[in-house]
Amino acid sequence: MSTNVPTRAQLRARAADVVPVLQKYATWSEEHRRLHDDVLEAMSAAGIFRLRTPARYGGYECDARTLIEVATELARGDGSAAWTASVYWIPTWMAAQFPDEVQDEVFTSPSTRICGTLSPSATATPVDGGVVVNGRWGFISGALHSQWQAIIAVQLMPQGPPLPVVALVPMADLQVIDDWHTHALHGTGSVSTVAQDLFVPQARVLPLPAILDGQGASRANVASAIYQAPLLPVASASSVGTAVGLAKAARDVFLERLPGRKITYTTYDSQGAAPLTHLQVAEAVTKVDQAEFHAQRLATTLDQKAADRQSWTLDERVRARADLGAACRLAKESVDILAGASGGSSVYADVPIQRIHHDIDAINLHALMHPNTNAELFGRFLCGLEPNTSYL
Predict the structure, then answer these.
(1) Which CATH code is given to the segment(s) 229-382?
(2) Which CATH superfamily is domain 8-112 in?
């Protein structure tokens, strides 16, 4: 399948054009704990789900900077929609690491949606021709709208230690547990999924360490730079744009509400005339700029190393996680300032900044995005200690 690949500017513009649709249905998605069908249709028509699909299936094979800029635009409309799109990009990239015949089975559409997780919360028992998987995975964003899931399980080996593996499974083979009752990112529909005595053919199973290091089994994708990178920098760049976009959304909605607002129980008839407001807005916007710097530095490193086909040093892997954590922290701090300056009326459900505030809080609690976890990892490395994680 051939395709005309849009430029980064065109994709960013397409994402911006989708923003009004995301804003229109943000409250619906929040109430129904899933994305509205019109949101999915709008993002699909804009090519959002093609960004990491191989070109031979009609995908765009976009670089990391494009992912960040597109996610940033989407998050200005709705954090749940942006997060779900970002999550799809990661397992889609992972699927492109599998043998080409498996990809033929998965990418029956250029907009195939693949959800997934990196948590090995299942077991895989070797049997003739494949493995039998039993287990449960939580926080599966976008599962309700996916055709496939990338699952992680621990394979019990006849000799040697257990081996974590990643497998591709049709959603029809999994049980979906509707347990997504949360205070934030409602529209992501991040339900749990369950496999019970599920047979997975060996061709759809790969060692997780190989994927973590970008050592895929695809012959056709060897020529494509974006698939020759470690998983964690790829995942970090895929995710961070949503955090930056939420901070920009908070800035936008705060400034939109500012005209005509006063500071109750003071002599300020206009909040915009108060020096305190000037300081708050300046600090918040500066933090947005700083968050974007870390996100763009992460993307630049990933794209440059992919283009040059260079291997990643441990220093670079740790710094990628550090940039991710710093961007999330700064984005949250920016939103915190503006949410705190938005007054009592901002607690109403139809005022977007309350949803933005909750969503950025939730993102900062994510295990791979948590600022403290990433900062500790960076500091540990700077102090000469070995990383205490294999997720690098």
Answers:
(1) 1.20.140.10
(2) Acyl-CoA dehydrogenase/oxidase, N-terminal domain (1.10.540.10)
Cβ–Cβ under 8 Å, residues 330 and 283: no
pLDDT in tens, the chain (392 residues): 556 899 999 999 999 999 999 999 999 999 999 999 999 999 999 999 999 999 999 999 999 999 999 999 999 999 999 999 999 999 999 999 999 999 999 999 999 999 999 999 999 999 999 999 999 999 999 999 999 999 999 998 888 899 999 999 999 999 999 999 999 999 999 999 999 999 999 999 999 999 999 899 999 999 999 999 999 999 999 999 999 999 999 999 999 999 989 999 999 999 999 999 999 999 999 999 999 999 999 999 999 999 999 999 999 999 999 999 999 999 999 999 999 999 988 898 888 999 999 999 999 999 999 999 999 999 999 999 999 999 99
One-letter-per-residue 3-state SS of the chain: CCCCCCCHHHHHHHHHHHHHHHHHHHHHHHHHCCCCHHHHHHHHHCCHHHCCCCHHHCCCCCCHHHHHHHHHHHHHHCHHHHHHHHHHHHHHHHHCCCCHHHHHHHCCCCCCCEEECCCCCEEEEEECCEEEEEEEEEEECCHHHCCEEEEEEEECCCCCCCEEEEEEEEHHHCEEECCCCCCCCHHHCCEEEEEEEEEEEHHHEEEHHHHHCCCCCCCHHHHCHHHCCCHHHHHHHHHHHHHHHHHHHHHHHHHHHCCCCCCCCCCCCCHHHCHHHHHHHHHHHHHHHHHHHHHHHHHHHHHHHHHHCCCCCHHHHHHHHHHHHHHHHHHHHHHHHHHHCCCHHHHCCCCHHHHHHHHHHHHHHCCCCCHHHHHHHHHHHHCCCCCCCCCC
CATH second-level architecture of 114-207?
Beta Barrel (2.40)
Which residue's structure tokens are 């779900």?
Answer: 84
